[in-house]
Design brief:
Number of helices: 11
Strand content: 25-35%
Distance between the termini: 37 Å
Shape: globular
Bound molecules: flavin-adenine dinucleotide
Number of domains: 1
CATH topology: FAD/NAD(P)-binding domain
Oligomer: single chain
CATH architecture: 3-Layer(bba) Sandwich
CATH class: Alpha Beta
Length: about 475
């Protein structure tokens, strides 16, 4: 099967890119521009029509916020939030985005929250964040957080501009829109092998597990946490050294989350979704390192996302108990649990670039969501299209998203922010759905509905082997 552009992976990077490409084609076909790429884009994913697990992009809900200590990501998030809030007609009437505001708690001794808020002050948007005292946190929202363990936290603020989105539905909408425009085809298949041309100077295509072959002029890997696993055979074939392998750019890391349904029984806390589901994320992330048959160490997602090491499950329950003990009054455990895998990079920048090896000059990557990139679904594809078409996204973005030099297994970092700051990993974050958004947050919040997301600190190796 031949196609001009083959996208492997229908998560946010693959779909957003397909959507923006489809949009460009349909605009071109209205004018005089006859783009020869039109109508030949294929998305290939192992899961039939998105949204389906195991993609990280498929989820109950995801946070949408501009609270970043990096100006680059704050600006990118503002751009995406404009689209979420109605700038993109696709989301305007779909009721997938909820601007709820959130409450952020920073650890004692940390200046991360202060730097984020200083960044708001320096941006071209109004800074709507407001200080909270510990007492405010305990007494607001009908005392919802009155029993929370707050002794580790030294500062608190609320930001009414943040929100959350119905992740699965939003992904589904974007996929349907990309297909509707006619230039994008969706195929189901698990890619097993990346095929080189006979001259071994370019990628010819992909072979699926069931033996189908897809050839393409350009190939984009948007394969998230599975990227290293997919690339390792090709890297072996080309004899790439460890420093030149994708594992040193991004690696698979997991996070666990638990789902508690029908919270109405617990009294004060109403569920955030229409189905009565509340999601708690345990921010302790981990890798699952294997040694490949050729001796390379790579992290790969676990196959069964509902199998979770008992220690981690217990830790997640404990983290719920420390924040919202009332949720567990009527139950001992959660109703569902998932290990969700994402590709992370050392500096939490995604990799949106062409592969640097001259023999792979038609192979592109858009991976490395690093636990924070879902919110960019409406807009990130535009930047991926630029890379595919050889255009710059501006010096700062190009530098942040390029393939980084690695020496002795250590990546040279960009200047886009300190390590581990793009996810709010040192903050505990509470999303609170306000009823009337225009009323100032402190006085307006009633615990109508609540999503609690706890983001912890450390990364640890190999809970499973
Ligand atoms: C628990 C958790 C919570 C998060 N919360 C937030 C949040 O609140 N806000 C936020 O902005 N971000 C959040 N993120 C980050 C965000 O979800 C991810 O960065 C983003 O979804 C990654 O998208 P992706 O397209 O790179 O990968 P994915 O969504 O994982 O998509 C990759 C796709 O590639 C396919 N694929 C892989 N290998 C193959 C193959 N060999 N053949 C065929 N198909 C293949 C997979 O089936 C999958 O569909 C969170 C991540 C996690 C794990």
């Amino acid at each position: 099967m031949d196609t001009d552009i083959l996208i492997i992976g229908a998560g946010i990077f693959g779909l957003s890119r397909a959507y923006h490409l489809a949009q460009r084609f349909s605009n071109a076909s209205k004018g005089t521009n006859t783009n020869k790429d039109a109508c030949k884009v294929t998305i290939l994913d192992r899961a039939p029509s998105p949204p389906l697990p195991p993609a990280a992009s498929t989820d109950i809900n995801k946070i949408v916020r501009a609270d970043y200590s990096s100006p680059l990501y704050m600006a990118l998030a503002h751009e995406a939030m404009d689209a979420w809030a109605g700038g993109n007609p696709l989301f305007q009437d779909a009721d997938v985005y909820h601007q709820t505001g959130w409450v952020v708690m920073d650890e004692k001794g940390s200046d991360l929250a202060a730097r984020i808020r200083a960044n708001f002050g320096n941006s071209n948007r109004e800074d709507v964040s407001v200080d909270l005292s510990e007492d405010d946190v305990r007494t607001s929202w009908n005392g919802l957080l009155s029993q929370a363990e707050l002794s580790d936290y030294g500062s608190f603020y609320a930001n009414p501009s943040a929100g959350w989105a119905d992740a699965a539905r939003a992904v589904e909408l974007m996929a349907a829109e990309a297909m509707k425009r006619g230039s994008v085809r969706y195929e189901v298949g698990e890619v097993e092998r990346i095929i080189l041309t006979p001259e071994r100077n370019a990628v010819q295509g992909m072979q699926t597990k069931d033996g189908r072959v897809y050839t393409a002029r350009k190939v984009l890997l948007a394969t998230g946490a599975w990227t290293s696993l997919l690339m390792t055979g090709l890297e072996d074939e080309l004899g790439l050294e460890d420093d030149d392998r994708v594992e040193n750019q991004i690696t698979a890391a997991g996070l666990s989350y638990e789902v508690v349904a029908n919270l109405t029984a617990a009294g004060e806390v109403l569920p955030p979704t229409k189905d009565g589901i509340c999601k708690f994320t345990n921010a302790r992330s981990f890798k699952n390192t294997i040694v490949t048959s050729t001796g390379h160490r790579i992290s790969v997602p676990s196959e069964n996302q509902s199998e979770i090491p008992p220690k981690l499950a217990q830790e997640t329950i404990t983290s719920i108990r420390e924040r919202l003990p009332q949720v567990l009054e009527a139950r001992k455990s959660a109703d569902d649990i998932r290990l969700c895998w994402d590709a992370i990079s050392p500096d939490q920048n995604p990799l949106i670039t062409r592969h640097p090896d001259p023999r792979l000059s038609n192979l592109y990557l858009a991976v490395g969501g690093s636990f924070h990139c879902w919110k960019f679904l409406p807009t990130i594809g535009r930047y991926v299209v630029n890379v595919l078409e050889g255009r710059s996204n501006g010096e700062e973005r190009d530098r942040a998203w390029r393939w980084k030099a690695v020496v002795g297994g250590t990546q040279r970092r960009t200047k886009t922010g300190k390590r581990n700051e793009l996810t709010t990993s040192r903050l505990a974050v509470f999303h609170v759905l306000t009823h009337v958004l225009s009323i100032p947050l402190l006085s307006a919040l009633s615990n109508k509905e609540l999503e609690l997301v706890l983001l912890g600190t450390s990364f640890y190796e190999a809970v499973q082997t």
